[in-house]
Amino acid sequence: MGMSSGGGDSGMLSEINVTPFVDVMLVLLIIFMVTTPMMVQGVDIDLPNSEAPPLTGGEDQVVLGIDKAGNLYLDETTYSGDEMARKLAAIHEANPDAAVFVKADGTISYQRVMDLMSMAKAAGIGRVGLVTMPMEAP
Questions:
Q1: Phi, psi angle pair for 134, to nearest 5°
Q2: What is the number of H-type helices and E-type strands within the chain?
Q3: Backbone region of residue 119 per phi and psi (left: phi > 0; alpha: psi in -120 to 50; beta: other values)
Q4: What residues have CB less than 8 Å from 28, skipping those under 6 apart?
Q5: I want to staple 131 with a disulfide (CB 3.0 to 4.6 A). Which of 16, 43, 103, 112 is the partner?
Q6: 24 — pLDDT class (breaks 50, 70, 90)
Q7: In angstroms, rounded to a whole number, what is the distance separating the alpha carbons of residues 28 and 34?
Q8: Domains of the chain (ranges plus CATH)?
């Protein structure tokens, strides 16, 4: 009655073969390892060093940049001086509390950095800060 526990091999094997799953996961891992560095693109700016503590940024911050050639960037898009002034005015109009952070290459003259900061101030943006790299410990 009921079940028989005979010595025959009439039952099915109920193990899961995970080899194809592992193969797919390894291929996906390799794809993500190759594509992730390509997703982290940006403007090549050599920031000056500073001992200032890092700031915590909010969602309403805007990053302005000046590279070695003197090109102006808003986030990662290049603009001329007049276009940048119009963009900054539009940003201030859309969000009066927006913070602007200036990333300038360390080899750029101080005057160029101040020109960009004053452009943001002229657009009505009240919170302007500078971005630097932390000092390395000796």
A1: -65, 150
A2: 3, 7
A3: alpha
A4: none
A5: 103
A6: very high
A7: 10
A8: 49-134 (3.30.420.270)
